[in-house]
Structure formats: structure tokens, C-alpha cells
Write a structure and sequence with these properties.
Layout: E1 2-6, H1 11-23, E2 28-33, H2 36-46, E3 51-55, H3 61-68, E4 73-76, H4 83-93, E5 96-99, H5 110-115, E6 119-121, H6 130-139, E7 144-155, H7 162-171, E8 180-183, E9 186-189, E10 197-201, E11 206-212, H8 217-225, E12 232-238, H9 241-252, E13 260-263, E14 266-269, H10 270-280, H11 282-285, E15 291-302, E16 305-314, H12 329-347, E17 355-356, H13 359-362, H14 365-374, E18 378-385
Parallel strand pairs: 1-2, 1-4, 2-3, 4-5, 5-6, 6-17, 7-12
Antiparallel strand pairs: 7-15, 8-9, 8-12, 10-11, 11-12, 13-14, 15-16, 16-18
Helix pairs in contact: 1-12, 3-4, 6-8, 6-14, 7-10, 12-14
């Protein structure tokens, strides 16, 4: 089988490409990217006869579709703002696919994927993705599920890439309709920094305040659990404390609206300008602690007794003691590797259904967890009777 890796020259998708080279049996792995210099550098680094580069500009829709038609699966590591366009290209090309973000635009192409007998899984990185599997794993062991709380700490620089800068602006847009919780039978939109809750993450990350974020788990977990009595679903997140202090100040001062301003004779969005600055500043490119930490809480009943399942995840330290996990790679590998695993499960026929399929319905958690373990990423579970 052949896989094309859209945005494969990027820091996160590049980790997924490395994982495909190490663990998969694809006969051809193509890095499809607009950045030819970075893509060819990765091909040279990997030094594998299966890996090549194709220049792909997804803004050139028909040309992109023509390129994708040569492949069985597309691993889409492009940014949030491109996912509508890239998913349409994948669907029309007759490929299966998967992406990192899963913010909802993908599902409108469900009929096209079904027509071709293909599957597309939106949102399969660390969160969303691995978190969906953690929720499903606990929920499947309960008769009823009352509460789901998904939390994560993403310990990485605030602007180490354009896509990460875009994510920051997107998630804290004051008017974003997708920032919701599910409570008492309905989805409720909340503002940035709503429902603060202290979450204890695995060491070395510690306990941090977290706030509601606009991630897809809220809606996908609801679809999976709506017949199990679910009453509350909340998804929270945090970044390193200095990042959160900056974002909170920008929000409180109105910068997150990205109002247009004039600088001399040039008009720019104020957050666009700040994002560009952070991508060029030392402060935007570094942080004290790197990595990822998940915390998932599922409360429900089994045989008329009430239980709380707490699932967390750990990975090798970013301090350089484990080769390949140094500094930023402790973060980027955590995000990229699950997407690679998802692609491999699709290729092996271990994904369920056709069409645009939510992660909870597409994959079995045990399959994902066992593959993560091979990469030194471990899922832990503690169960308490309430």
C-alpha cells in the first residue's frame, strides 16, 4: 500500500513519517508538502528507499486531487484552517484518510468516503485521538456513564510553528462556537477560561489549573455515550504557565479578537502580528519543560456500584536521557505517533466502518494502547469505588 503524508515536512507530521518508516510495511511513503527544502531534507535524513517527496500545494485543489489518486491512504498533518479543503481532496481522490485536528468540517464529506468504500478518521493525535481511546476504554467497562472529563497539559513553546500559533489563536477566539460542554442534555457554549479546575498530571508536570477548550472529544464522546446516561462532558487543557499567563492577558485586553489595526500604511490583524513576532522571538521558541500529559476521568456504574476511572499517560523524559525524546521531540512525538498508528491500523484493516468516522467508532483502544507501548508511550489506569 502507498501513503501520502500531507504536511509531512512539519515538525509534528514529520514525527508521524518517522514512525511509519520504523514500524509500518507501506511500500511507498511520500512526503507531500509545499516546503520542498524541508521535505527533501527529511527524505535525506530518513534514507529509506520507500520514502520520497512530492510538492503539494493544497490551495491548488484539482492538482492535489490528481496527486492523491495515486495513493491508498492520506495522513493529513496540515493546519486547522486547511482541513476542510484537504478532506475534500482526500474524499474526491478516493483515498482513506486521517488527520490531527478533527474540528468538524470533515464530516460533511461522509457520503463521498462511503461512495468510495473508504474511511476517514478526523482528529487522531494525542488529544483528540488518544484521549478518545481512553474514554472508550473506561466507558466500555461500565454499564452507565455519568461524567467524562478530558484534560491535558501540552508542554511546548507557544509558537514553535505556524500551525501551533494558529491553534492558539483559534482555541481562544472569544466568539468560537465550538467551545462547548455537554451538560444535562444539551451543548452549552462557554467563553475562554471557563470552568477552571485543578488537574493533577503525571510527574514531572504536576498540578495546574485548566480551562474548557474547543476540542472534538466533547461531541464525539457524546455520540459514543448518549445511550449510557451521560450527563456531563468537559474537555480542558493547559500549556506551560507562562504561555497561559500571556494568552489570558491577550484575551482580557481584547487582542484575541484579532482586530484589524493600522501600522503606518499597513493593515494587519493584531494577533497575526503577535503570532509572527512570537515565531521569531526566543520566548516563542522555547520553554522550561517539554512533553505531553493526559488525564481522563470517567465516572459511572457497574453492577449498580459507582466507580471513577482515572487514566493518564507517560512517556520518556525530555531531558536527553532517552535518545529521540530530547526537548521538543517529547511533545511532537506524542502528537505525531498516534496519527501514524491510526494510518497503520487502517492499512491493516483494523479500522471499523466506511465514511467519516469518529475515533471512538473507528478503533479499538487495546489496539492503539499496545502500539503506543511499543513506542514507550504508556497508558495507566486507576479505578476507585465511590
Amino acid at each position: 500500500m502507498k501513503v501520502l503524508c500531507l504536511g509531512g515536512a512539519g515538525k509534528i507530521c514529520g514525527e508521524a513519517v518517522r514512525d511509519l518508516v520504523e514500524f509500518s510495511e507501506f511500500e511507498k511513503i511520500t512526503i507531500g508538502d509545499y516546503n520542498e527544502k524541508a521535505g527533501c531534507a527529511l527524505v535525506e535524513e530518513l534514507n529509506d528507499s520507500r520514502v520520497d517527496f512530492a510538492r503539494v500545494n493544497v490551495l491548488e485543489k484539482e492538482e492535489t486531487i490528481k496527486t492523491l489518486q495515486e495513493y491508498d491512504i492520506v495522513m493529513d498533518g496540515t493546519t486547522i484552517k486547511l482541513n476542510d479543503r484537504t478532506t475534500e481532496c482526500i474524499a474526491r481522490a478516493g483515498c482513506s484518510g486521517i488527520n490531527l485536528n478533527g474540528f468538524g468540517e470533515e464530516y460533511k464529506y461522509d457520503d463521498i468516503f462511503r461512495k468510495h468504500g473508504k474511511i476517514h478518521v478526523p482528529g487522531f493525535g494525542m488529544t483528540p485521538g488518544t484521549t478518545d481511546m481512553m474514554v472508550k476504554y473506561a466507558a466500555d467497562r461500565l454499564d452507565t456513564v455519568e461524567i467524562v472529563r478530558v484534560s491535558h497539559g501540552a508542554f511546548r513553546p507557544i509558537a514553535f510553528s505556524p500551525s501551533i500559533t494558529e491553534t492558539t489563536t483559534y482555541e481562544y477566539d472569544p466568539d468560537l462556537p465550538g467551545r462547548v460542554v455537554f451538560e444535562d442534555g444539551k451543548f452549552i457554549q462557554v467563553p475562554p477560561f471557563a470552568r477552571e479546575r485543578d488537574i493533577e498530571l503525571p510527574e514531572p508536570y504536576g498540578t495546574h489549573p485548566q480551562w474548557i477548550i474547543p476540542h472534538s472529544e466533547t461531541k464525539t464522546a457524546y455520540e459514543y455515550l448518549k445511550d449510557k446516561g451521560i450527563k456531563l462532558i468537559e474537555v480542558r487543557g493547559t500549556w506551560p504557565p507562562p504561555n497561559m499567563e500571556l494568552v489570558k492577558a491577550l484575551y482580557e485586553w481584547g487582542f484575541m479578537r484579532n482586530d484589524r489595526i493600522k501600522v503606518d500604511d499597513t493593515e494587519v490583524g493584531i494577533m497575526d502580528a503577535i503570532g509572527s513576532y512570537l515565531q521569531q522571538a526566543l520566548e516563542g521558541q522555547s520553554t522550561d519543560l517539554y512533553g505531553y500529559a493526559l488525564h481522563v476521568e470517567v465516572v459511572g456504574t457497574k453492577a449498580e456500584k459507582k466507580y471513577r476511572h482515572i487514566l493518564t499517560h507517560t512517556h520518556p523524559s525530555s531531558d536527553g536521557s532517552v535518545e529521540g525524546w530530547e526537548k521538543l521531540r517529547a511533545y511532537t512525538r506524542c502528537v505525531g505517533i498516534p496519527m501514524s498508528i491510526g494510518v497503520q491500523l487502517i492499512a491493516l484493516g483494523r479500522a471499523h466502518g466506511t465514511g467519516a468516522i469518529m475515533p471512538e467508532f473507528a478503533f479499538d483502544p487495546e489496539d492503539v494502547f499496545s502500539e503506543l507501548e511499543k513506542r514507550q508511550i504508556f497508558i495507566h489506569e486507576v479505578i476507585n469505588e465511590l
